[in-house]
Structure formats: structure tokens, C-alpha cells
Specification:
catalytic activity, 27% strand, Phenazine_PhzF-like, alpha+beta
Amino acid sequence: MPFIPFKQVDVFTSTPYFENPVAVVLDAQALDTEAMQRIANWANLSETTFVLAPT
């Protein structure tokens, strides 16, 4: 699998490393469902978001 840029961000808080961490995968257009599921499993967070181009 190629390098896939992502960020881990905290939501519902103004304090870093507090509350809910979420993985945000940037430029996920080339990923299929299986790859997205593998990445979400690897991130091991309750939520993972994939940014796609609008349709």
C-alpha cells in the first residue's frame, strides 16, 4: 500500500490529548473499501474519517 497521509485530531475539546481522538485520512480517493477498513483497523480508534472528492 502506498503512503497515505493522515492526521489524528481531538474532537469535542479545546485541550490537546483529551476527549475523542479521530483519524482523518486525507486524499482517500484511490482507496477501495478493503483498504479503508484495513486503515481504520490499524488506527485502532473509535472513529476514522476518509476525505473524498465531492460527487
